[in-house]
Amino acid sequence: MSENIFEKRKHIRVSNIVSVDIYNYFSGKYICSGYITDICVGGMRLESNEYMNGEDDVLLKFFLPNGNYFDNLKGKIIRTGKESFTFFYGVQFSEVSLKDKLRLWFYAKRMGKITLP
Fold first, then answer.
1. In whole angstroms, how far apart are CA 101 and each of 2, 51, 57, 94?
2. What CA–CA distances, in Å, run from 84 to 21, 49, 57, 71, 88?
3. Domains along the chain with CATH numbers
4. pTM above 0.85, yes or no
5. Which of 41, 55, 68, 69 has its CA 20 to 30 A from that of 18?
6. Using CA atoms, how far apart are residues 11 and 63, in angstroms rounded to an integer?
7. Shortest CA distance to 38 belongs to which of 15, 20, 21?
């Protein structure tokens, strides 16, 4: 018997590797850098060598491969975990401007249609 597994995602999620700088939302203090491994309109998965507390509010700064720069995108860490040598985090965006939502949506939609051979 084959079993179909469907993700219950609200938004198109695309995989990529993009450098990100992470800051504390309240103090603006630099926490660490890491890499975005996938992104969508609602959030991202990122990896870092540094440990961060779950449920922290963070500010994220990064460039997408299409040249869009996101400065001080607010997010909340909602999931944490550890792999071999890195920590991974699920970040849910909050207080995102309409402009940033549209830029994320167009990026995800465009990249979601591209298939690699």
1. 37, 28, 19, 11
2. 22, 10, 25, 30, 10
3. 14-108 (2.40.10.220)
4. no
5. 55
6. 20
7. 15
